[in-house]
Amino acid sequence: MVIYGVVVIDGTDVIWIHQLLARYGWAIDSSDWDALAELFIADATIDYRSSTGRIERAGRDAIVDWFRSVAGHNPAAHHVTNIVVDADADRDDRVAVRSKFFAPYPRAVHEPKRLYGGDYRDVVVRTPNGWRFASKECIPQWQLTVQIDDSGPEHRRSY
Asked: Count of CB atoms within 10 A of residue 59's CB?
């Protein structure tokens, strides 16, 4: 729908954009690189910052290759919340999306064990195959390092 030169997205678009963010976490958590590739347009970009540096990649293949290369060190899960979808798209059907992420790092390879969170700033675009990421920016905001007592009952461990 176009109103006074601005493309307006509807509630169905918002739901599909939420699904896009959810599929991103599921694809990474399950190391499903083909599914991850489907979520980005061909010339997409990422900008990931962390305590160990900044990673910038351009192009869907470079993005997926980078995620594949760090697969053993990814968090145990990706949780995305507080998703805010801009109500207007530009003439190219690009929409700004802001959200919060929370990622636990409890695995044996994760030293130190920690909880990590921050903001995603995304630009998504409507394609013939649905909404896809044109750019994804990961901005860390906080980290909580935890001390794990592995002497407790088995049901308290995370795998």
From this structure: 15
Burial class (CB in 10 A: 0-12, 13-18, 19+), 129: exposed
Every domain of the chain and the residues it spans: 2-156
Q: Do 140 and 49 touch, CB atoms closer than 8 A?
A: yes
Handedness of CA 93, 98, 100, 101 (dihedral sign): positive
Helices (H), the chain: 11-29, 33-38, 60-69
3-state secondary structure of 124: strand
CATH number 3.10.450.50 is the correct assignment for the domain at 2-156: yes
Contact 33/67 with Cβ under 8 angstroms?
yes
Q: What is the pLDDT along the chain (159 residues), one digit of tens a residue?
A: 444 445 678 889 999 999 999 999 999 999 999 999 999 999 999 999 876 788 999 999 999 999 999 887 788 889 999 999 987 777 778 999 999 999 888 888 888 888 889 999 999 999 999 999 999 999 999 989 877 666 665 655 555
